[in-house]
Amino acid sequence: MIHLITLSSRITLLIFMALYTMIAFIALRRKTSKKRRARLYIYQNFLMFLLIADANVVLFANSQDFRYLLALVMEVALMFSILMLYNQIYPEVERSLVNFLTVLLSIGLIIMSRLSLDRFMHQYLIALLGLGISIGIPAIIRKFPNLDQLVWGYAGIGIVLLAIVFLIGTREYGAKLSISLAGFSFQPTEFVKISFVLYFAAALSRLKKTDSPVKLLAILGIACLHLLILAASKDLGAASIFFVVMVGILYAWSGNLLILIGGFGMIGVGLVLLSTVFAHVSDRLMAWLHPLKYVEDQGYQVSQSLFAIAGGSWFGSGLLQGMPEKIPVVAKDFVFAAISEELGALFAICLLFLCISCFIMMMNVAMKVRRPFFKLTAVGLGTAYGFQLLLSVGGVIRFIPSTGVTFPLISYGGSSLISSMILFSIIEGIYLVEGEDRRSEEA
Fold this sequence. Notes:
The longest helix is centred in the N-terminal third of the chain and has 30 residues, at 34-63. The protein is 75% helix and 3% strand. Helix 15 runs antiparallel to helix 16 and helix 16 (372-396) runs antiparallel to helix 17. A hairpin with a 2-residue loop joins strand 1 (170-172) and strand 2. It contains 17 helices and 3 strands. The mean pLDDT is 87. A 3-stranded antiparallel sheet has the order 1-2-3, covered by helices on one side. The chain is an all-alpha fold. The N and C termini lie far apart (62 Å).
């Protein structure tokens, strides 16, 4: 019986995920009416709850651990609370983004409970904290429309936090990433990513194209100072995200395509140069180029990830039937490999398409916004989300060298989870302000 439940869940979980993803793209179509879109979002919520129930029942059936049934109730309660709070407090909220937030968070909690119930509980409590912090952000954005005036406040917060990490941060895998205080560890860089977007968007939105080039150079200089501190801390994954965000916002502000071309060209050149300076970057390059050759050393993590993905095949081995624990740091950097192994490559592909549709929706919001600061902020946050996703998944499947970047909303880690929830809330706030502007004009 247990074997039958596990076997059938490989198909049912995939069906729920595939339908959810398909609906996400249907809702993105311009031809889809507002009324039909609302119905589609309800269907998505129903599929998400089926996904949570199916996964936790399988986990309970295979382990006979009643804590998985408790986890089922807790996850349903959390997702229902998020949906109700956003929809009740902000009736005009962008429902698709709320749905993206809940389904990605639910998948993250499912895979955390499979890997470790202790990690699940920690991640769950962090999600509750993140909800408490992020739920009020749209209201703050609506209440204070002149947030673009805090240019130097955003820059100061970011530089100070990065400097603290550089000076007293804990070194992990060759880079200074976190700060430990009173037994708690957090990564300020995850939050500086948001303050950096706010700084650069605010500075450029207040800069006229007729202003002296010196002003633009000063703005770029402060932005590059963030990158230099990250490089000194050897946190090159975060540095690459900051750089791509800077390029994306600068392109959105100027409309010059050469900025995009030159920016991405500089990433390739920088990777080659950094590999000659930092030993851990060189190790990751070797692991990327020849994982099996260095399988006992630098290439062990990447090799185990590829073995897990291959072992899961198209439909996965089933929850609790694989061996994701063999992958070092699987809950953080390589969570996508665990998903691929036990839920299958098809499920993982659906997850990727779902994240892509989320990125598209973020950019849709950015394109509709007319206030320069909010437009550039939405572009920057969407770019940060999309590029972080590329780095996380790309490192797991050996598309690019591993950078140690987390999968937004799914990977284990409090700082990453809270900052991702804040990111979604800021975009929701921007969407609400734009809607109010349009309605006031029409009135």
